[in-house]
Every structure is written in structure tokens, then in C-alpha cells.
Amino acid sequence: MDTRLSSEQQALVDVARRLTERLGPDGVVSLDDDDRVARLDQATTEAGWRRLRDDDGDGRPLASGVEAGIVASALGQALGDTALFGPLLAADLLRRVGIDAPGAFTVALVPELSSLAVADAGRLPAAVAVDALGATSALALLPDDGGFALAAVPIAGTERSFDLTRWVSSIPAGTELEEIAGSRTLTGDDILEVEAFALSLASADLVGIMRGALELTVDYAKSRQQFETPIGAFQAVQHLLAEAKTLLEGSISVSQHASWAVDALDAGEAREAAAVAKAYCARAAIEVCEVAVQVHGGYGNTWECMAHVYLRRALLSVSLFGDDGVQLAFLAARRMGV
Amino acid sequence: MDYGDSPEEGAFRDRLRRWLTEDRSWSSASSTDDEYWTRQASWHTALFEAGFFALAWPKKWGGQELHHTFEVIVDEELARAGAPPKPSLGYLIQGISRFGSEELCDRFIPGLISGRDRWRQGFSEPDAGSDLASLQTTAVLDGDEYVIEGHKIWTSYSDVAEWCLLLARTDPDVPKHRGLSVFAIPMNQSGIEQRPLRMINGVSNEFGQVTFDGARVTAENLIGEPGQGWALAMTIVAFERQPAELGYVARYAKTVSELEGDVRSDPDSTRREIAEHIAWAHVQSEMLRLHVCRRLSERLDDPDGGVHGSIDKLLMTWTEQSVGQAARHAAGSATSQAGGDSRLGTYLYSRSQSVMGGTSQIQKNIIATRVLGLPSN
Fold it and tell me: Which residue, A186, A193, B19, B257, shows the most beta carbons closer than 10 Å to its own?
């Protein structure tokens, strides 16, 4: 056992941090800077980050869950308003059915966002294409002989979601599907592994969000003065921030393990590790972002303060493939038969 | 990044697993029961003799010279077998070995590691808890011996210890942090009176109070230099705050697994929210296990473990108290019985984790000022 990042992984952390910090939004106004969003999108494409789970030629992904998690975390920290989660999951699904189709794909989820959308009698119920910026179609599951095939639905236009840094597209019930003719179908284990990967990415994104929100808030607590004293000198404020820092550290530990487990453990173990990570990071991230809003005081409750942008992004990532309650129910069923 | 076993780690795990299956002399008591404290000495000896204790320490002291990461394997396998956790002594060795002379270390550490000598820690006093440096126990030089007067509390292994690592004031004329020294004092002498402390869950074998009234200790047993006591005590406390040193991960995983087992044997009569409390305790217990893996791996770069002790202590506290809450919910109607049951004992015991080894409030002060760099108030 040696859970430290390799030197290549550490280098990826540095590159991803630099790039997302340079091209991510530096304030609420800059969220509407279309040129900047386009530059971040282009840089992300050039870095190859959305291709990390493409086939390496032998049926395996180009990079492990750890590398994907590093990039997800960097984007979360910088509130990077570009697509990653959707394209990476789509690539993971396509690789599993043996297709090398570099298209602009994301995934279609059920309206609660807790799982992949599944076609029923050849028709797709209402669904949501998440993380859809730049995507032209979304992948859904098509039941096929005890397993699943993949189907694509076209995306008819995207809008910014409640999370101001990511885009979605609603897919109306009954939208026509186009089956993707892969060389294999997805098994139950494939679905567990895809879910494990999705949850590990969402957890890594939440870790990044917590890092960013905490950094913003600690800086503010050092500079904002009341009673002629920086508010960060008051114990009541210090304890909120100390708890937030501690939650972040616990989250890093579960999230890194879940990212590693994606490719290193068997499907069931990886899915359990992902449930542990997501349940922990979901609760921690909401708490940390709420502390960010609170410590910023009145300003923290205005649109202008970035604290709510972190909270909004956290709320979406918490929902992706199931929040803490969904994960605890999964663990209770699996470990206790309840 | 690899959480899996190397071939060497795998072989160690297999050997430990075999030993735990074959040698069933251990009882499954947890450190929250009096039975555990009664049998703790024989469990310590058994673990040491089989080569599963003090893994990272030099062989000349009875250690195995393995990397700290092997400790995770011990915690995991003890929990898996339902065995008691390992004795928590590593932090005393960390303190003594960093400050004591080579001669002193060679004299004391082997007995501490093998379990031949029982040690306790004499730091806190009735009037010196969070403000430890204000302690009033005195050590006055008389010839080549120090004479000790004072009152210590929260001394563990109270009734069986042969040695006490005692923090006492040797110089009353300098600022409070600078006048302290640490001694290894033998407990079997007149002038020392011990009384057990009964905790809220009824256990009385873990903690005690000690009165020193003219007890004597040779000046040779002073660890480090006179006046180094505060630095030594803070080193010990920093390691005592690290779950990696304490082996509590095994205790939490064992309790969670017992609670899960109860539900599994009768899932239909378990309310969903109780199962979810237990699932949350599992999440916390796994978090702590993985966090210890991460911290012990970091020691490959930084043997001192940096300034993370207070963060790790808080994570450990939250874990213990989540497990305690799950036990409380699972116990349900046992509250109507006179003695309750062991799950209620687990809950009550968990409340002490946010106090002992430094309160959660003190940990948050340390994290805020020393980790986050917020201004001191």
C-alpha cells in the first residue's frame, strides 16, 4: 500500500490546477464571458481530458479513474464551466460496448439524476442530458437480452442549469432513439462499474468545490473586519472553518480511494467504495458551502459573491447518480439486506 | 497510488489471518468493556510474541522494522476477525524515542513494546485540563532524586501500571510552559496512591486518579533535558491524536460489523432509518480507515506527520460518535432495562472521544490558527 500520487499524477494535478485557474471564472460577471468559456472549452479539448476513458486499443481506458478524478477535482475547485463528467461517462460506456465513436456525446439520466435513463419498449421516458455543453447527443440504456445496449438521443439545445457552471438539455418523453450497434452488450457488472466511475467523478468534483469554497472563505475571514478585528480571529468563526477544513480532509481520503477503486477493485467493491465516497462528500460539501455563505455574512447572500456558485455546483454534483440518502440506502441493502 | 497489498504485505496479512484463526485465546471484548482492560495484558503479550505489535520500531527494541503502513493491515484483520483492537502505546514510544537518551530508550522501550512493563501517562490534573501547562504537580531535586508532590487524573491502565510518564513542574520561576519536565517514575513505591475512576458507561478499569505525596524518582529517569517537558508532552499528545497510532479503526469497524450482523439476521424487523444510521457509521468508519492509509503513506515523505494531528483527531471523534449514535438507535428499547445493553455502553463511551486527548474545541482552535493561518484571538 502506498496511496501517494505518482509523479505523473502529481504533474497532472499541477497542470490541471494552472489551466483551470487561468481560464475558469474569476467572478460572477465572468460567468457570462462567452469568449472565456470558449477558451476553457478549447483548452480542455486540447488537453485531452474528455478522452481519458476512451479505448487504448486493447479495450482498456487510456487513463485510470485517478487521473479522471484529478481533472474533475481541478474543474470543481476553479468552478470550471465546461463539460467533463458527461463526455467521460459517455466514453466509458462506448468503450464497454466496443465502439470507437469520437462524437460529441454526454449521458441521459432519469429526471431525479440518480441513474442512467433506460428505454422502455423502445421509447425513452422523460430524461435529462446533463453536462451537455457542446454535446449533440446523449447516451441512454436499451434493455437487450438480459443486458443493455446503448442508444443515442439527439440534443435539441442546451441551457445553463441551476448550477451556473454546467449546462443541461431536457429530453421529452417519447423522443426517438437510435440504437448504437456495438460489438458487446453491457452486463450488470458493467453498470455497477459505470456507476462507480460516475460517483467517483462526482465525489472528486465535490472535493474540488470544497477546496475552492474554503479557500475563498478563509481569505475573506482574514481580511473582513468587524469590531476592528478580522472576523477570522473570533473563535465562533474559526470553529466553523476548522470543521470545514476537517470535512475536506476526510472527503479527500474517501474520494481518492473511490477513484482508485474504479479500475482496481471488482465491480461490487468499487460500487461500494463509490457509495461510501459519495455519501461522505455529499454531506461534507453541502456543509462546507453553507459555511462559505455564512462566513461571508450579508455579502454571502448576494448574487455577486461566489459562495453561492460553489453551493449551486455542489447541489448538482450531490444529485448526480444519487445523493447521500440514495447511497446509504444502497449500502443498507447490500450490507444488511434492508 | 495503490491501496492494494504488495507481495510482502500480502504474505504478512495471510500470516496474521492464519494466526487469528488458529490461536483463539483472545476474547472478543472491546476496549469499551471492563473485560478488555482485565485481559489487555495477555492480549498485548500474545500479539507481541506472534510478531504483530510495534511493527515500525527498531528490532533492538522488539519491533519489526516494517513501514507504518503495515499497521493498517493489523487494524483491518483484527476487525475482520472480531478480535480486540491492539493496545494504544505507540504515542508514548514516539515521545520517549524523540527526547530520551539512547541509554534511556534502550532501558525503557523494550519492556513497553513487549508488554512486560505497563505504562501510564500522568499529564492531566483536576485543575489542568485544556490548560495543561498550568499544572501544579512539582518535582523538587533532593540529592540525586526528585521528590514529587501532586495529583494526576485520567491516568490509564490505572491499577496495573508499573511505570508512569509524569509531567511535573521543575522550575516555578519561569513562564508556565518552560518550567516542566518529564520523568519515568516507578509506580510501586510508598507515596503514591491510586484510585480508579468510574466512567459514565460503568467501566472502571480504564482510567484512574493518582496522588503523589513524597514519591521519589532518580534524576537519571528524567527524559530529555529539564524544561523540555512541554515539547515532549506536545509530541506525545500530537501522536495520541492520530488514529493511525491508536488502532481505533479496528474497534469502529468491529462495532459496525456487529450492528450490521444484528440487522442482517432479522432485516424485516429493522426500521429503515436504523439501517441508515448504521450505514452512515460504516461510511465514517471506512473514511477513517482510508484516511489512516493516506496519512501513513504520507509518512514515507514526512516521518513526523506534519500538523495534521488535530484534523485527524476530529475525524476520529466524528467517526466514534457516529458509531455511538448508530448503536444508540439500534439499542432502542434496551433503555427500559436496568443495565441497558452493550450498545448503550458503546454510545455512552463515545461521548468521551470529544474530550480525551484534547477537546474538540481545542482541536478546532489549533486547526484554525496553525493549519488555516487565521489570526490568534
Answer: A193
Catalytic residue at B225?
Answer: no
Q: Is B160 helix (H, G, I), strand (E, B) or coil?
A: coil
The boundaries of the domain holding residue A227 are: 189-336
Portion 144-173 of A in contact with B at CB < 8 A: none
Superfamily the domain B241-371 falls into: Butyryl-CoA Dehydrogenase, subunit A, domain 3 (1.20.140.10)
Average pLDDT score over chain B: 91
Residue A279: closest C-alpha in chain B: B283
Q: Say how far apart CA B28 and CA A77 lie, in whole Å.
A: 45
pLDDT digits (tens, 9 = 90+) for B22-58: 876 676 666 666 677 677 888 899 999 999 999 999 9
**How do B119-122 and B163-169 pair as beta strands?**
parallel
Residue A231, chain B, CB below 8 Å: the answer is: no
Whether B276 sits inside 8 A of A241 (CB atoms) is no
Active-site hit among B76, B77, B125, B240: B240
Binary contact (A253, B293; C-beta < 8 A): yes
Spatial distance between the Cα atoms of B107 and B84, rounded to a whole number of angstroms: 29
Contact list in A for residue B369 (CB cut-off 8 A) is 238
Q: What is the ipTM of this complex?
A: 0.97
| B367 closest CB neighbour out of A221, A242, A253 | A242
Residue in B67, B242, B294, B370 to test binding to A, most A beta-carbons within 10 Å: B294
- Please count the other Cβ atoms lying within 10 Å of the Cβ belonging to residue A63: 22
**Candidates B5, B267, B368; nearest CB to A338:** B267
Query: Is A235 exposed, middle or buried, given 0-12, 13-18 or 19+ CB atoms closer than 10 A?
Result: middle
Q: Exposure pattern of B321-350 as b/e (b: 16+ CB <10 Å)?
A: bbbbbbbbbbbeeeeeeeebebbbbbbbbb
Signed CA dihedral, B314, B317, B323, B329: sign only: negative
Q: What cell numbers appear for A36 in the block?
A: 472565456
- Rounded to a whole number of angstroms, the distance from the CA of B10 to the nearest CA of chain A is 10
pLDDT tens digits, B140-163:
999 999 999 999 999 876 567 899
Is A73 a member of any domain? no
Whether the Cβ atoms of residue B299 and residue B292 lie closer than 8 Å to each other: no
Task: Tell me whether residues B1 and A6 touch, CB distance under 8 A.
Answer: yes
pLDDT tens for each residue of A126-156: 999 999 999 999 999 999 988 999 999 999 8
Note which residues in 239-278 of chain A have CB less than 8 A from chain B: 239, 241-243, 245-246, 249-250, 252-254, 256-257, 260-261, 264, 275-276
Domain B119-232: top CATH class: mainly beta
- Name which of B273, B280, B269 is nearest B324 in CA terms: B280
Q: What is the Cα–Cα distance from B317 to A269, expressed in whole angstroms? A: 26
Query: What is the C-alpha to C-alpha distance for residues A184 and A28, in angstroms, rounded to an integer?
Result: 45
Separation between Cα atoms, residue A271 and residue A276, nearest integer Å:
9
